[in-house]
Specification:
alpha/beta; TIM Barrel; Rossmann fold; Immunoglobulin-like; 6-stranded mixed beta sheet; 4-stranded antiparallel beta sheet
């Protein structure tokens, strides 16, 4: 915390409480369902709560777009606003639940969010929980999210955020309990650690969660390298560490690095894993008795845990804590629903708009066809780790509400999301006649295809059609593409709305469909937001936080954690839709200048950009700055995002903004994991896309390129 004196005072109070506990009492404080110690005035507390895109799993709350959709906003300040609203609702629900004696799971103020793992492979089922494939973007958006969850009070936490899953974790889901993720020191530092480092050192995140897998041979929740050397040693992390749920039993059951439960809990506790999500830490009683863990080590862990609760104000009078006045009346408010609608709209990415098919003109349409398994699918609105909304608006409902009685809406489910028929007893495909009939009657057809959290998600999630939660490939599942071909064959104008949490290889659609929107899992208000964009009441502004690849076959092996060939930073093939890409309804121009062409190790380079909206729609311009080292070897990235700024520009408005690019942005990690500003030539690209050929082809524009040099001796930063 920024107020070191306050933090030290909380820690001292926690240590004094712990000194009065018995060994057994200490052990039961290290479980996620920490028991009450009435004689010391310590109430029961459950640490396990989720707030990935809204307060989850505990009744009604605002269900915002899934994290990957929020990432498409490229807007750090907006994510702080979203997370601030989430923590307000979390405080309101906590107050209500506590007043009614409910201290169960999902009822605390320790939120195990955000997930800042790198979305390394589009097949990973949990990728939609992340903030995308880029470490810089994940760092900035994660920082905004943590600030929103934890608040900016100098003394108390509004709620406690958690950076997870530390570290080098991104599938496959079905072997995560036994898998060893092997990566080089260079990839570790350049890709897998930066977001965690930023959240610890800049955002002061209170909690870090370990991952299930091993990293370079060590189980992450008991890793000396990750938890001792890096997290607490290099980064000076002072909060508490929690295991992922039941991850510690994997040490002996699956990773086979220990012989039994007692050895497993000793390894985790000695490496600094303070909290056990699960119940295996009851074995700490035996571990201490056998001398495998000292009681002093256990006391340190419990002190950290109680310090977090004290920072939350849970041991202080309510009138001293600024957040205790937040009541249940601030949950699911009109303002929160309006913010949710705005978030859904800001996250939508316009991938294609041939001959300006969009926006649709309501007055020119008599009948609109809405076809597809995601047209009326609530599950495709919310993704996973979700709360319960008081109202959901699917795409079909959003369109129906928008056009009212002025336009007839014809609907067909089209097909099952992933099977060849909707009804089990039918011959299948059993909706094709209806699809053809709807197309015949319609002036324009909205095809609503993609995935939902029943197809991509976490291993063990109920309802995963793909058993592990990972995708087998990048294709539209089932017979969705067959349905799309029938729609296209009708000759009617076609708009494809994709709802998914990951990239799909929609090559046929790119070649044959007039307009394509990527809607992600857009939250409870998603259908309303997408309808507003379809009919031009809102202007799409989202940018892709992930790469859309052309084929599954071009991807490296799913289990290969080497970054070569992965993401926009290291891929060699041309993307279908590149990272950072997204079209608009309006016309935007930008011209930039740089403060110097000489890079300094001591001072940032300043970019000044003049942004002009010459079209007819108010929008937000996504200023992106990419850096490329020209004299690097084959391990150097193609380019790297190193600066973003969202700039509101009204139609006809011209605005000047500045962006600082520090020396660290030009530096690269070497094979020893050292961050080095190398002598030589660089390029800095400034615009609203990355500088690849595919982006230039799709947008019809290129970012400005500035030739830079660092003429000093190479220096370690």
């Amino acid at each position: 915390m920024k107020n070191k004196a306050a933090n030290d005072a909380f820690e001292k109070r926690a240590r004094e409480l712990v000194s009065q506990m018995t060994l057994e009492e200490k052990v039961f404080q290290t479980l996620h369902w920490a028991a009450a110690i009435e004689r010391l005035g310590i109430p029961a507390y459950n640490y396990w709560n989720e707030a990935l895109h809204g307060v989850a799993r505990a009744g009604v709350a605002t269900v915002f777009p899934q994290a990957i959709g929020l990432a498409a906003t490229f807007d750090e300040d907006f994510l702080e606003k979203i997370a601030d609203t989430i923590s307000t609702e979390g405080r309101g629900k906590y107050k209500m639940q506590s007043e009614h004696g409910d201290r169960d799971i999902y009822k605390g103020l320790t939120f195990w969010s955000p997930n800042v793992n790198i979305f390394r492979d589009p097949r990973w089922g949990r990728g939609h929980e992340t903030l995308g494939e880029d470490p810089y973007l994940s760092s900035r958006l994660g920082t905004g999210f943590v600030h929103g969850i934890q608040g900016r009070d100098d003394k108390y936490l509004k709620a406690a955020a958690c950076a997870k899953h530390f570290a080098v974790h991104s599938g496959p889901e079905d072997i995560r309990h036994s898998f060893n993720a092997e990566c080089s020191e260079q990839d570790l530092r350049e890709t897998y650690l930066p977001a965690f480092k930023t959240l610890v050192q800049e955002a002061d995140v209170e909690i870090v969660m370990g991952a299930y897998n091993r990293t370079n041979g060590e189980p992450c929740c008991g890793s000396e390298r990750l938890l001792v050397d890096i997290l607490r040693g290099e980064w000076k992390f002072e909060g508490h560490v929690t295991s992922d749920c039941w991850a510690i039993r994997d040490f002996h059951e699956h990773h086979k690095v220990t012989a039994n439960a007692v050895e497993s809990v000793a390894l985790a506790m000695n490496r600094g894993c303070d909290l056990n999500c699960g119940h295996i830490y009851v074995n700490l009683l035996e571990a201490v008795k056998e001398g495998l863990v000292t009681e002093e080590t256990l006391s340190t862990a419990v002190t950290r845990l109680l310090t977090t609760r004290m920072k939350l104000g849970l041991f202080d009078p309510e009138d001293q804590v600024p957040y205790t006045s937040i009541g249940y009346d601030q949950v699911d408010t009109k303002a929160n629903r309006e913010l949710n609608l705005k978030a859904a709209g800001k996250s939508v990415v316009l991938l294609k708009n041939e001959d300006n098919l969009l926006p649709l003109k309501k007055e020119a349409i008599r009948t609109i066809g809405v076809i597809g398994p995601n047209a009326n699918n609530r599950k495709a609105l919310v993704g996973n780790y979700e709360g319960t909304a008081s109202r959901y608006i699917t795409i079909l409902e959003g369109i129906q509400d928008y056009v009212g009685d002025d336009v007839r809406v014809r609907y067909s489910e089209g097909c099952h999301l992933c099977l060849d028929k909707v009804q089990n007893l039918a011959a299948g495909p059993d909706r094709m006649a209806e699809v053809k009939a709807v197309c015949e009657e319609s002036d324009v057809v909205i095809a609503c295809l993609g995935l939902d959290a029943g197809l991509e998600g976490e291993e063990g999630d109920q309802g995963n059609q793909f058993a592990s939660g990972d995708k087998p490939n990048l294709n539209l599942p089932g017979i969705q593409e067959d349905v799309l071909k029938i729609i296209v064959a009708s000759g009617k104008p076609v708009v494809l709305v994709l709802l998914s949490g990951s990239a799909l290889a929609v090559n046929y659609a790119d070649e044959n469909v007039g307009a394509i929107l990527q809607g992600w899992y857009p939250g409870a208000q998603g259908g309303k937001a997408i309808a507003k964009i379809l009919f031009g009441e809102a202007c799409p502004e989202g940018k892709l936080p992930i790469t859309f690849y052309c084929t599954t076959e071009e991807l490296p092996a799913f289990t290969d954690y080497n970054m070569k060939g992965r993401t926009y930073r290291y891929m060699k093939n041309e993307a279908l839709y590149p990272f950072g890409y997204g079209l608009s309804y309006t016309t935007l121009k930008a011209s930039a200048t740089v403060s110097t062409n000489e890079i300094s190790a001591d001072a940032p380079l300043v970019v000044s950009a003049v942004i002009e909206n010459t079209g007819n729609y108010d929008t937000n311009y996504t200023l992106q700055a990419y850096v490329k080292y020209l004299d690097g070897d084959e391990t150097a990235p193609n380019c790297q995002l190193k600066g973003i700024k969202k700039v509101p520009v009204a139609a006809g408005e011209r605005k000047t903004v500045t962006l600082e690019v520090p020396a660290e942005a030009f530096a690269l990690y070497n094979k020893d994991g050292k961050l080095v500003l190398n002598k030589g030539a660089y390029e800095l690209y400034v615009g609203d896309s990355q500088p690849d050929a595919r982006s230039a082809k799709l947008t019809g524009a290129k970012p400005e390129c500035f030739k830079l040099n660092y003429n000093g001796e190479s220096v370690e930063l």
